[in-house]
Amino acid sequence: MPRNLTDLMESAVASAPPEPHRAYDITRLAQSRQRRRTSFVAAGAALAVVAVTGAGLGLTRGGHDASPQPAAPYRYGQVVSPSDAVPAGSVPGFREIHYSVKAVDEQPGTRQEQQQGIPNPAFAEYSDIDAEGRLIVVRRAAGDTSPVLADVLAGPAATTSSARTPAPPTTNGSAPIFWVPWFVGDGRLLWVPSSPVVRQGDVGIHVTDLAGAHDQPLVLDHSKPGPATGDKRDHAWVSGDRLWFPGMQFQHPSNDLTAPPVYPFHSTPLDDPTQVSTVASLTAGASVSDGAAGWVTPDGRGFLGSTDGGQIPSFRLPLGDGCTVSPYGGELQQVAVTGGLLAFTEQCGTGDSATNEVLVVDGSSRLVLHVRTDSAFDLMMSDGILAFIGSDPVTPKALGTYRFDLSTGVLAELGDVRSDPRAPVVAGHFVIWHDSNSFHVGEFAQ
Predict the structure, then answer these.
(1) Sequence-ordered list of residues with C-beta below 8 angstroms from that of 68, at least 6 positions apart, any chain
(2) Which strands make up the sheet holding 135-141, listed edge to edge?
(3) How many other C-beta atoms are found inside a 10 Å radius of the C-beta of residue 347?
(4) Strand order in 277-283's β-sheet?
């Protein structure tokens, strides 16, 4: 048994499982994503210990469905592959937008700069964008992965942040904690700490307006499940007056960190984080976006509904024959939602022949999109647009970032991924992606 919370966190980080996309280069390329998710494993390790089991099962995806299709702004039964993608520059209405604050990959810093956490002016990461083109730029210390400074830019010409940080930096032991913003999508910012907050009674997140004012802090209560930290899109979402977040629970009563954890899904009012509701006791992935909450379970069921309250309906996922939904190596898989759609990945085959393919379904289990991929991850949806990183079955080592318009059926390749995959971001007409050189922002006007 660990002696205290610090020992438990260190053990969790040391035993964090790798991303099992494939056994060769894709795993190596995704290592940085695993590092950025480590804070989730560490923070979640402080939660309760329970015994939960789940079994994956597959369904045969039926043939052509001749029943009338419900009215929707997207087409049903679409099937594409990365080899069908067209260059983004060839899509009518596309243009790349250049912001005054340039984004470039990290440059090495001196040992003193690394130890002191000095921001590297040569490295700035485009981390989030909203439907109005406001951009969040995160700077990091030389040689470090921890955010140090974050700016909210009102537009391409802006050079200074339009939002003030709601609270000064703090520390977790000797580790500095900085507040990093993400767009909620309704004119607010969700500020999460750059490292797990473990002290009882400390503020875990802040919710403010776009200027960083009207702060609504959430104080952690470690006797109850609470949000993990470090990446809003994976681990915490705000919709209306509620916070949604996955938890993590170990299946063994002795906190055996070698056993795969399980992931419930929780919700709590922003003004009273002690009133935690467990929305689902076992998930393989969950997400909240555009006023919708959705998740998938290891036994092949999907859930999709409004965050306004009420029962969220369940349906059987249209998995392929012999395919399953399961967490990636004991972690949550990427799930995306928008309006009445749910996107997730199914795993088909075993060993080196296994593939992870993207499915998009509606709340009645009707298949909207099937992307035939060798590997796919970092899914995100907004306003009928799906973005992801994936590889074609014909060329499985060639990763690319893709954007699919569910209304027009156009799959656009944004750029290749040769090292350190970074999740794409979509909001309205805008998209952020990262290629082998830097971060980019594009707009699809049509």
Answers:
(1) none
(2) 119-129, 135-141, 147-153
(3) 21
(4) 237-239, 242-246, 263-269, 277-283
Q: Return d(Cα 429, Cα 390) in angstroms, integer.
A: 21
Q: Tens of pLDDT along 236-253?
A: 899 999 999 888 776 665
Q: How many residues does the chain have?
A: 446
Strands 277-283 and 263-269: antiparallel
To the nearest 10 degrees (0 to 180), the angle between helices 5-14 and 31-44 is 150
Q: Enter the pTM of the model.
A: 0.80
SS3 sequence of the chain: CCCCHHHHHHHHHHCCCCCCCCCCHHHHHCHHHHHHHHHHHHHHCCCCCCCCCCCCCCCCCCCCCCCCCCCCCCCCCEEECHHHCEEHHHCCCEEEECCCCCCCCCCCCCHHHHHHCCEEEEEEEEEEECCCCCEEEEEEECCCCCEEEEEEECCCCCCCCCCCCCCCCEEECCEEECEEEEECCCCEEEEEECCCCCCCCCEEEEEEECCCCCCEEEECCCCCCCCCCCCHHHHCEEECCEEEEECCECCCCCCCCCCCCEEEEEEEECCCCCCCEEEEEEECEEEEECCEEEEECCCCEEEEEECCCCCCCEEECCCCCCCECCCECCECCCCEEECCEEEEEEEECCHHHCEEEEEEEECCCCEEEEECCCEEEEEEEECCEEEEEEECCCCCCCEEEEEEECCCCCEEEEEEECCCCCCCEEECCEEEEECCCCEEEEEECC
Contact 200, 219 (CB under 8 A): no
Token pair 């702004």 is found at 73
CB atoms under 10 Å from CB of 398, counted, come to 16
Q: How far apart are CA 409 and CA 240, in angstroms?
A: 31
* Residue 270 in tokens: 């922003």
Q: Residue-wise over 326-343: b if at least 16 C-beta within 10 A, else e? A: bbbebbbbbbbbbbbbbb
CB 96 within 8 Å of CB 441: yes
Query: What is the Cα–Cα distance from 169 to 179, expressed in whole angstroms?
Result: 7
| Distance of alpha carbon 84 from the chain centroid | 25
Q: What is the pLDDT of residue 144?
A: 53
- What contacts 186, CB < 8 A, 6 or more positions away? none
CB neighbourhood size of 363 (10 A): 19
Query: What does the pLDDT look like over 120-150, one tens digit per residue?
Result: 555 678 999 999 999 999 876 555 555 567 8
Q: Give 350's contacts (C-beta < 8 A, 6+ positions apart).
A: none
